[in-house]
Design brief:
Layout lengths: L14 E4 L2 E4 H23 L6 H23 L2 H4 L19 H19 L3 H25 L14 E2 L16 E2 L2 H23 L5 H19 L8 E2 L2 E2 H23 L52 H7 L12
Antiparallel strand pairs: 1-2, 3-4, 5-6
Pathway: Protein modification; lipoprotein biosynthesis (diacylglyceryl transfer)
Protein name: Phosphatidylglycerol--prolipoprotein diacylglyceryl transferase
EC number: 2.5.1.145
Amino acid sequence: MSPLSIPSPDPAFQQFPVGPLTIHIYALFILAGIIVAMLLVNRRLTRRGGEPGVVIDIVLWAVPLGIIGARFYHVFTHVGDYFYPGANLWNVFAIWDGGNALYGSLIGGALGAFIGCRITGIRLWSFADALAPAMLVAQAIGRVGNYFNHELFGLPTTLPWGLEIESTNAKFPVGLPDGTLFHPLFLYEIIWNLVGVALLLLVERRFALRWGKLFALYLVWYGLGRSWLEAIRIDPSSDGFLGIPANIWASFAAIALGIVLFVVQSRRHPGVEVSVYRAGRGPKGKARSDEADGTDGTDSAAGPDSDSGSGEGPGGGVWTDDELAASGTPAGGASRSGS
């Protein structure tokens, strides 16, 4: 065994009692990721004119539905682990034992975010762009929980930084000798996600990406990394199609969706996004004046709830010529960002 190999934490560290409760380390890292992401999104939305704390009203919908989606996606792509003769069906809900799929959380969280954004008046794509780098940070934090749970490891390796996994682990391949090292996929994904954060922020600053285009790049980046990691992951119970695990198919779908979303939104909204609020909405539900772009808060093509832009600044204020110049939009040409 290499002196640089990564030892798995003692199983005793996976949980600890607090009075009558049992606290699971995995759950704590998931919770920490959610809190950090929420703080980052709040900061990013506030800087763009959103009301401070508005993200809480969205998160109250997005997080619960995201957790439900994450768990059920995992369960239904690992049916053999939960549905067999004599199985304890309550294990389907044992989220603290690990098994929460990111792609399921995206599906459930997207539904929750849609509901929350409709209630608050925040544009869904504005929220998604603010969320994109924060999601990668949250995912990186959550992967530390996988490390404590002795899961998310890959094929055997002779690399010096291989991960030590006990031979009694349910996913330890049959026939391999005790002491075999494995690719630390949790660490690879942490690194991939943090590099992605830096790249997204760099691209966002350079090109001022809005209207869901930054979120589209997040889907492509995460899908590319995840498809490679899943290809070398040891997960014998994962269901798939044509011999390809479900998570690889989901990664391909994420990449395709990201590309389509970027192209479509680039054509529909080539200009800047001058407010994170939908037309006619503003902080605390107050209507925004649309005098700056000569409208009454509606969009003749898409209706009053359209994600089309307006000629106002963050929070409902009118943009000045200096502000428009700083955003890359010529003065007098910001009456409507996109179609």
